[in-house]
Amino acid sequence: MILPNDFKSEYKEIEQEIQLKIQDFFAKGRYILGEELQGFEQDFAKYIGQNNCVGVANGLEGLFLSLKALGVGEGDEVIVPSNAYIASVLSISQVGATPVFVEPNPFTYNIDVSKIEEKITKKTKVILPVHLYGLVSDMPAIMEIAKRYNLFVVEDCAQAHGASINGQKAGSFGDINAFSFYPTKNLGAYGDAGAITTNSYDLARKIQMLRNYGSEVRYQNEMIGYNSRLDELQAAILKVKLKFLDNWNLRRREAANEFREIFSNKNWIFPMEPEGYKHVYHQFVVQSENREADLLELEKSGYKCLIHYPIPPYKSKVYTEMFKNYTFPIADSIANKVFSLPIHGKMWSKKQDYEKQ
Ligand SMILES: *Cc1c(COP(=O)(O)O)cnc(C)c1O
Fold first, then answer.
1. Residue 176 lies in a domain
2. Which among 17, 25, 162, 225 would be 20 to 30 A from 279, CA to CA?
3. By residue range, what is the domain housing residue 292?
4. Would the CA dihedral through 131, 166, 197, 15 be positive or negative?
5. Does 92 contact ligand 1 (Cβ within 6 A)?
6. Do 55 and 200 have their domain in common?
7. Domain presence at residue 70
8. 3-class DSSP state of 99
9. pLDDT of residue 348
10. Is the pTM of this model over 0.70?
11. Would you say residue 298 lies in a domain?
12. Which ligand 1 atom is at minimum distance from the Cα of 193?
């Protein structure tokens, strides 16, 4: 059976380096806000191409603190795709702002930039694109709209580590951008972890304070902060794993090409990779008119498939009251037709290997 993740074989590849790192970690005995975290923050900022990276507890906190740092709160509106992952939307509610949904393009699954302007009001503060399944949103167009209307942009990069447009990486377009290192992400910790990237020194400093009780200097508290630190051990592990990310993304891309070949006789809608874009296939998502039958057949042939995601956020119980007068037919249609073939950084890259299964 080909499963959506293979943590054990990933660990095997990096076992020695991780073990050395952990021995060193215990020898040092520093567990919070130490040099491993600083080292990872430097490496990740450089990898993404931004001046600053600040580690936080997880991806949702990265989004929440980014909105906080921008001063987004009650009475403000944040534009977000209607097929976003629920966490992207929760971050908006957590700061007290209102999510305003814009339908996605049904082929890229990312926010349809031609539908953003009609949703902008006097209350709009932020556009929050979600780079779903590993493809970057149309950031040049989004940044142009944001500039024209004087809005902030917060990228949700939780599924797009290493994805790019003409070489510019996800997490380097918006004012402040959030990543998750949940274990199943393209770059995953051995537990919860997240980070923000930004070119703004002021925003980075604000996040540093917000994640640590609103304090930069111990016992001096300047704002109502939180405890949302990325711990030293996870940072140490991420620092090792970052070196392997490009290679694991390459394997995902190879596996994606093989899926296109293996299933070329299916009349599914396959993932798009527009000219100049680099997709990192956090998920390999197709749309099928016969999802139930296809899933049964694939299960029999040894592919463990999942559905990302079966319910659009506006139809989740938490939001049904708020959005009872709205419909988002494209998000609905996507939720009814999509499924994800299993894909990860340790996929066999040769077709024979699939056939051996
Ligand atoms: C995983 C994910 C998040 C949340 O990240 P956590 O680390 O689980 O809090 C947010 N947005 C998207 C698009 C995600 O895939």
1. yes
2. 17
3. 245-341
4. positive
5. no
6. yes
7. yes
8. strand
9. 77
10. yes
11. yes
12. 7
